[in-house]
Amino acid sequence: MGQITNALLDLHGPVIYGVVAALVFAEAALFFGFVFPGETAIVVAGVLASQHRVSLPILLVVIVLAAVIGDSVGYEIGRRYGDRLLGMKALHKHRPKVDKAHGLLRRRGAFAVFLGRFTALLRALMPALAGSAKMPYGRFLVFNALGGAAWGIGFTTGGFLVGTAFEQVAQWAGRVLAIGVAVIAVVAFIVWSVRRKRRENAAGEEGNATADEPKPVPDLGP
């Protein structure tokens, strides 16, 4: 994760849009969220926008579109290959989380798509689960778009504000101290992300030893 973050920080110009869009898209469309949480990419992108390497408004549009399109692809994959998808060996250690996502989908319906956007593992799984459950695409798209906009704008703007604060600190206390503060902030964010993923994996492994077979998801069609 640290290597990807460092690579993002070294980017310049329009390539930033493409790389960030690809990471956000792949999170749900290709289940890349199991490896690299998308919010890390967009927070870093927000920092780059604060340095005027990219336009913040354009970046926000690119991120929201990539999130919505990526989830739509994940939905279609789930709709077509849901049973085989849920039987993948890679998901075995995450079975309790998958069951939790199933339960959330049963209880909240399409609103679960919005809620899932703010949790790394659910963000990768929920679109496919919604497709597997045959949720009407129009209903899915509405909550997908709302979640993608709230998530993308919120985290990217947060990164932008952090980057702006860095520049203000640099003017006040000197660039060396500011760099130290920025490094500490980035390392703290990465450590938090890694620890959160480890906790999720640990919970998945513990639950996997005692979890029952997942219950079928009811048809959510009209």
Automatic annotation (TrEMBL):
Pfam families: VTT_dom. The lineage of its organism: Bacteria, Bacillati, Actinomycetota, Actinomycetes, Streptosporangiales. Its main location: membrane. It is found in: Cell membrane. It is a multi-pass membrane protein. This is DedA family protein. Residues 201-222 are annotated as: Disordered. Belongs to the DedA family. It comes from Actinoallomurus vinaceus. It comes from the Bacteria. The chain crosses the membrane at residues 15-36, 56-75, 141-166, 172-192. InterPro entries: DedA-like (IPR032818), VTT_dom (IPR032816). Keywords: Cell membrane, Membrane, Transmembrane, Transmembrane helix. Residues 36-158 form the VTT domain.
